[in-house]
Specification:
Helix content is 40%, strand content 23%. It is an alpha+beta fold and 233 residues long. It has a single domain, classed as Thiol Ester Dehydrase, Chain A, CATH 3.10.129.10. A 6-stranded antiparallel sheet has the order 1-2-4-5-6-3, covered by helices on one side. β1 and β2 form a beta hairpin.
Length: 233
């Protein structure tokens, strides 16, 4: 790896690492609200609460949804360049549906870098169930897409998913501390090849291979502008 490639990779590491940094003020409360919503989602999928309790909860959430709707909507920054230029390098990833601490849909996956290996930690709750007591295969695939997307970004020339191949070795259990390992296999021009594994303890439950195609940040900017145009219709 050249010095220039290493430098780009270090900048990307810094960018990703910022997504897990401590925050204060409205951002901290947004993360706290997302965490509370995750608990509601998890408990709703398993609760046998009576009708009146469920009605009260639904009424309260309807009222709060209306309150949120009364505030201006913010256009989320997309891509490395936009987030960095906004002076808020963690903003985009904080809303990721897989790792975002401000997104109640996220489990969330916690990602860390150790040398050339990316490690992920996650615990899927009841809302992610497929086979009884186990994670839906679609969520396993989505998690791999995020983890491999992380590791391919460490090349300094991040791209978008072209192909993703998942091999399900064993059912992946719910409510269990799981771990991912991912590495970049090789880079061929704009093509970035990555691989990853998912473990329950020492048991391999699934592995994956992904091909990513490096994308010019100008194209990411065009996607962001198209999104903004749709929102303004």
């Amino acid at each position: 790896m050249s010095d220039d490639e290493r430098s780009r990779g270090e900048r990307v590491f810094s960018f990703w690492s910022a997504a897990g940094s401590a925050v204060t003020g409205a951002w901290a409360e947004r993360r706290r609200l997302a965490a509370a919503m995750r608990q509601v989602i998890d408990r709703l999928t398993t609760s046998d609460a009576p009708e009146e309790e469920l009605r009260a909860a639904a009424d309260a959430l309807d009222r709060y949804a209306a309150r949120l709707a009364s505030h201006p909507r913010r256009t989320l920054p997309l891509g490395f360049g936009e987030s960095a230029n906004a002076g808020d390098v963690a903003a985009f990833f904080d809303y990721s549906p897989l790792i975002g601490l401000s997104n109640p849909l996220a489990p969330p996956i916690v990602l860390e870098v150790e040398g050339q290996v990316v490690h992920g930690r996650v615990r899927f709750g009841a809302a992610y169930e497929g086979p009884p007591g186990h994670v839906h295969g679609g969520f396993v695939a989505a998690a791999f897409d995020e983890v491999l997307g992380f590791v391919q970004s460490t090349t300094g020339q991040p791209g978008m998913t072209a192909t993703l191949t998942i091999r399900y070795r064993k059912p992946t259990p719910l409510d269990t501390d799981l771990r991912f390992e991912a590495t970049v296999r090789r880079v061929e021009g704009r093509k970035i090849f990555a691989e990853g594994r998912l473990y329950d303890g020492d048991i391999l439950t699934a592995d994956a291979e992904g091909l990513f195609i490096s994308v010019d940040l100008v194209k990411m900017q065009l996607l962001a502008e198209a999104k903004k145009a749709r929102q303004n219709r």
